[in-house]
Amino acid sequence: MTGSVSKVLSATFAACTVLALGAAPATAASSTGAQTYQQNFCEVFGPYTVCSISHGEYTVVTTPSGNTMYQNNGKFEYTISVNGEIYYSSEGTAHNQYLFKKGELQENHYRASQTDTQPGQTCTYSYAYHFANGQVQFDNNGFECVPV
After folding, report:
1. What is the Cα–Cα distance from 12 to 135, expressed in whole angstroms?
2. Each residue of 31-45: pLDDT tens digit?
3. b/e per residue 26-49 (b: at least 16 CB within 10 A)
4. How is the chain split into domains, by residue range?
């Protein structure tokens, strides 16, 4: 892979992962129930075209006793084309949840999976994390690539 393609892939992965893994609009501070979001874009960088779609829902609930729960579920997909031909594609899902009691983090769990396809291989990534009772309960990730 050339340096330019590598830079585009790295930037795209970072941007799309942030979108899918919990980036919610500033209105998330309300307790109005589930809110949905969707973001679509395509950008051209010389011979490269990067397209991304992310969508999902988030919920923020605050109780009278001061507990706040934030939950997000999202999906994303993106492609990178070189001179009009799809070179790289990716899709994934993410779920995260935070529980705060009187402003202090009590519980957090997060899981994500992603499948990337590029010439010659398909790679699958997974991640699972859980924090409760003041400590990390587990922090697992997986990665596997297979030739296509």
Report:
1. 32
2. 667 899 999 999 999
3. eebeeeeeebebeeeeeeeeeebb
4. 3-147
